[in-house]
Each structure stands twice: as structure tokens, then as C-alpha cells.
Amino acid sequence: MRILVTGGAGFIGSALVRRLVLDQVAEAVLVVDKLTYAGERRSLRDCEGKPGFGFLQADIADAEAMAKAMADFRPDAVMHLAAESHVDRSIAGAAPFVQTNLVGTFVLLEAARAYWLGLEGAAKENFRFLHISTDEVFGSLGATGYFTETTPYSPRSPYSATKAGSDHLVAAWHETYGLPTLMTNCSNNYGPFHFPEKLIPLTILNALEGKPLPVYGKGENVRDWLFVDDHVTALIAVLQRGKPGQTYNVGGNSERRNIEVVEAICDTLDRLRPDAAGPRRRLISFVTDRPGHDARYAIDASKLKAELGWEPSETFATGLEKTIAWYLENDWWWQPLRERVYSGERLGLLPAK
Ligand code: NAD
């Protein structure tokens, strides 16, 4: 398969591209990425120069560039991950979220539709457009219950509102124009190459450096955590075997309160790299809660298991240990990014998804 991956220099996109290229899942991969502050070409270091790997720096909202990318690369599938993805940034300024997540997805859909209409026979029938989205479109849960594929949308942040809008566009392009789309809504990811403004990497790196570990409110908000490589496996299964027009929820069966996540990181680091100044839980610092902070997200991923046989292979404990070990061994990647994150903090942005 020839696969065009948007947002392939981001956290999840780069994990996907490394799998597609290094495990030779795809015959050719073209990454289309604008390289915003969140895009890191160095995350694709191991793919550079490999047969079939290509990189195009372009904005998905650039209609001409997208039409040319489709015509030149001639993909069998598009996997669409490009997005503005950080909730706190969306609260500070929603314009890039509307532009990329809504306008960009619209432009990409139109480019894909025009290209798909020009295909014939099996190539047209087998073409797929997989849109990668979030469980945040469903809003906030109470103490019980799970998001399923039929949960009504109720986005509450500018980020989730623009992702919800992009999901609706994708569904409409299937219903109205017959474009063979697929969609996934996934819970919080974590793992290697995660930009250090997000809760888990920020906590790991601050804890390593003896800096305060900011936790919103009392740390009671619950998220379902999925190791990024498990998400990648799910995306490939949906692309290869999912039914056009369908949506699949992807989750980790790993609900944790934010404070539990931060404490687990402190305890693991204390074990792997003891701090002479004492246990790292001393660094935890509770900060004013995010406005409209959703209380709980939890995913029911039983459809993906029943139809495509997918289940996460990592528990939160094993995934977190792998993630921390990776950050300890790969400061070449995160060290240059730390200054950017602290610039973000000076703008009044706080860490966490
Ligand atoms: P990320 O912020 O790490 O990466 C986004 C990538 O998109 C970056 O490489 C960036 O340069 C690129 N990009 C942004 N605007 C662009 C534009 N206009 N044109 C081209 N490229 C552009 O995001 P991520 O965490 O890897 O998330 C990827 C996708 O998965 C997003 O659509 C996100 O909504 C979704 N998602 C993320 C999570 C999570 O926990 N991270 C969970 C569920 C779903």
C-alpha cells in the first residue's frame, strides 16, 4: 500500500510512520506535515533514506499543495493525523485550531475526493481515507459509564469542538459523496517522542530536573491512557480491515486519576534514578484548574475487539516503564524542545492534555 500520512512528524503520526516504514507494512509512505511547533522531523530520523519514504512540508489547508501531493504520490490510502492538538493552547487562542482542524480537514477531504473520483476499478474501490480523532468529542463522563461509537457528541473545549467538527465533515463526505472513509476516536496516548508540554513527558522531565510538577485542581480528573504503539496497531487494523463509513473507539482499559499518573512517574523514577534530595512526590504542586476541565473520559473499545480482534498489549505499568526508560535514554530528542515548552508556560499555558 502507498500511504499518505498527514501530521507524520507529530507524536502519534511519527510512531505510525516508523511502524509503516521500518516494519515494511507499507510499500511507500509520504509524510505531509507543516512542521508547526509540535512537528519534529527528528522523530523520523530512523526512516530517512529508507526505500519508499518521502517527506513533504506543506499545510493541509493549502488546496493546491494537497491536490499536487495526491496527483504526484498516488496514494492507496490517506491517514489523517495533522491537527492542532493541545487543549490549553486552544483555550489561549482557537484560531489555528479552527484553521487546521476544520478548514484543513475540509481541504484535505476535497483533495482526496477529487483524486479518488479519478481512480478506476479496484484502485477506486479499495481507496481509504482514515480520519484519526479523539474521545474528547464526546464531552465529559460522570463516575460511571463509557463512551461508545454511538455516544452523542458534546465537545467542551475549542480543541474538542474543532475535532468534533472535523469528524462531522468526514462522516458527511462518506454519506454525501461516497468517499470510503473510516474514523477512530481514541483516548489519551503516551509513549516515546511525546512533546514535552503534555502531562506525562512534562512530569518525567520536570521530575528528573527537580522542578515543580504542576497538577490541575486536586488531580481528580480521570483519563484512559493508551500506549502509542498500541494505538498504531489499532490504526493499521482499521485501515486494512475496517468497514468504510464506520467509526471505531480505541482505548487502553487504563483509567487513572491525574494525580495517580504523576505519583506513578515519581515512584518509578525514584526506583530507576534515585534523587539525593528525597522522594520526588515532594515536587507535586497543585495549580488552578483548567476552565471547563472534563471530569472523566473512558472508552468502550469492544467493537474494535469484536470486529477486528484488537486489544492493547501494554498495561499502564508496563507502558509507563517503557516510556520513562525511553526519556532517560534519549535526551538528544527532548533536550532541544525544553526551551520551547517553557516559553509556552511563560505565555500562560499550562501542561496537560
Ligand atoms: P501532535 O500535536 O503531536 O502532532 C500534530 C502534527 O500535525 C505535527 O507534526 C504538526 O506539525 C502537524 N500539523 C499541524 N497543523 C498542520 C497543518 N495545518 N498542516 C500539516 N500539518 C500540520 O499531535 P498527536 O498527539 O500526534 O495527535 C495526532 C492526531 O491524533 C490528532 O488529530 C489528534 O487530535 C489525535 N489524537 C491524539 C491523542 C493524544 O493523546 N495525543 C488522542 C486521540 C486522538
Q: Can you offer a commentary on this structure?
A:
By secondary structure, the protein is an alpha/beta fold. The protein has one domain (2-194, 225-255, 292-315): 3-Layer(aba) Sandwich (Rossmann fold), CATH 3.40.50. The chain has twelve helices and twelve strands. The strands form three sheets. A seven-stranded parallel β-sheet has the order 3-2-1-4-5-6-10, with helices on both faces. A three-stranded mixed β-sheet has the order 7-9-11. Strand 5, helix 6 (158-177) and strand 6 form a beta-alpha-beta unit. Helix 7 (199-208) packs parallel to helix 9 (258-272). It is globular and about 65 Å long. The protein binds nicotinamide-adenine-dinucleotide (NAD).
Question: Which short descriptors sum up this protein?
Answer:
353 residues; alpha/beta; Rossmann fold; seven-stranded parallel beta sheet; three-stranded mixed beta sheet; 12 helices; 44% helix; 16% strand; binds nicotinamide-adenine-dinucleotide
Total domain count? 1
* Low-pLDDT ranges: 343-353
Query: Which CATH-level-2 architecture?
Result: 3-Layer(aba) Sandwich
Our count of helices gives 12
Determine the CATH superfamily: NAD(P)-binding Rossmann-like Domain
Task: Provide a short characterization of the protein structure.
With 353 residues, the chain is α/β, with parallel strands linked by helices. It contains 12 helices and 12 strands.
